[in-house]
Amino acid sequence: MSDLKIKTVAKATTDYLLSPPLEITVNDRAATRDAIIKQLNRNGCNFITRSDWAAHKNKSEKMKDDWNYKNIAIHHAGRSYACGPGALQLQEIQRFQMDKSINSMDDIGYHYAVDCSGNIFEGRDIRFKGEHVHNYNTGVIGIVLLQNMSTPEEGGDSISRLRVFLKKMGYKDNIEIPENQRKALSMLIDVLSTFFHISVLGGHREFPRQLGEGKICPGNAGLSLIKSLRKSKGLAAPQS
C-alpha cells in the first residue's frame, strides 16, 4: 500500500473515532418488540416467547393495530387459578378466551404474563390492540399475573361464600405474591416505560365501567401491589 493510501486510511480512522456517535432512530414496531425482549433478557429476566409456550395461532386478519401505549393494566388469572406451570396456564387461558368465552377473542387478550417463579411470557403481540379491559383497550398494555390474588370475601357470590366457609373450616386461603413475581413485574413495567410514554398503572377494576369478574380483578392483594408500584415509579391511577 502506498504512503498516500496509508495516510488516507489513517485519517479516515481518526475522523471516525473522534466523530460523535450516530443517532439511529428505529421506526419499526417489529424491531421494538424484539428490543423489549432483548432488554428484559439483558436485565436477567427469563422471557418466554409465544412459540416457546406453544401458543395457538391468532386470528391476525381480525386483529387491530395499536401503539403509543400510555397505560398498563394489571390482571390476575382469576379465582380458579393458583401458582402453577405458567405455559400450561397460558394455553388454558388462550383456549378459553378464543374458543369457549361468550365473546370469543382473536388471541389471548393480554400482552404479557408473569408466573409465580418470575418467568415473563409473551402473550398477544405488542403490535396488536389487546382484549383485556372492557371498552378500554386502546393504548393499554395488558399484563396478567398467573395466580389468584383475590381474598375469600371478594365477589359476594357462591364462589366467595364457599371460600369464606372453607376458611372458617380451617382451609388456608392466604394470598401471597412471591418475591420473584414482584421483581419480574416491576422489571417488566420499567422496560416497557423505556419504550413507551407510560403514565398510568392500574388494576383491571380501577378502569371505568368494568363488568363481572372485572369488578374483582386483580383482587385485593393485587391492588395492594399495584398501589405500591405506582408510588415507587411515580405513575398515576386510571381516571374513573
Automatic annotation (TrEMBL):
MF (Gene Ontology): N-acetylmuramoyl-L-alanine amidase activity; zinc ion binding
Domain Peptidoglycan recognition protein family: 45-205
One Pfam match: Amidase_2
InterPro entries membership: Amidase/PGRP_sf (IPR036505), Amidase_domain (IPR002502), PGRP (IPR015510), PGRP_domain_met/bac (IPR006619)
GO BP, sorted A to Z: peptidoglycan catabolic process
Family membership noted in the UniProt record: Belongs to the N-acetylmuramoyl-L-alanine amidase 2 family.
Stated name of the protein: N-acetylmuramoyl-L-alanine amidase
Organism phylogeny: Bacteria, Pseudomonadati, Pseudomonadota, Betaproteobacteria, Neisseriales
